[in-house]
Amino acid sequence: MAKTVTLHPKGNQMKYKETEFTVPAGKKVKVVFENTATSPSMQHNVVVLTRPPEQKVFRKVGEAGMSAGASNDYVPQDMGDLILAHTPMSKPGETVSVTFTTPGETGDYGYICTYPGHWATMQGTMHVR
Ligand SMILES: [Cu+2]
């Protein structure tokens, strides 16, 4: 593993505490999400996208996540080209993670939480350097 990154929610807000992190290009990394929220409605995941952080892409994936429903962890099943990796959905108090290979191309890649209603504010940027 080239790097392990640990993310958290910002209290009980629909926001990440860490809105950016940096990883090396073309390496295996692990993203851990510790759901330290206490409000039962604050379920979260981390969905890393193959695109730069742009509102229109966040919206597309976020809305498709809502349509995908709870049985799919609110992760779109037909957007493989937009989704690089994602953690399972976490309830408050749970820790989830995902291991993946970072893009070979340096640049900025967006990530969001796809729990319904969260994508618009729960956003971040993965810097690949
Ligand atoms: Cu969330």
Structural notes for this entry:
GO terms for molecular function: copper ion binding; electron transfer activity. Keywords: Copper, Electron transport, Metal-binding, Transport. This is Azurin. The structure is a single chain. This protein has 129 residues and is mainly beta. It has a single domain, classed as Sandwich (Immunoglobulin-like). 11% of the residues lie in helices and 33% in strands. It has one helix and eight strands. The strands form two sheets. It has a five-stranded mixed β-sheet with strand order 2-8-7-4-5, with helices on one face. Strands 1-3-6 form a three-stranded mixed β-sheet, with no helix packed on it. The longest helix has 14 residues, at 55-68. The chain is globular, with a radius of gyration of 13 Å. The mean pLDDT is 97. Bound molecules: copper (II) ion (CU). Residues 14, 44, 113, 115, 118, 122 line the site of copper (II) ion.
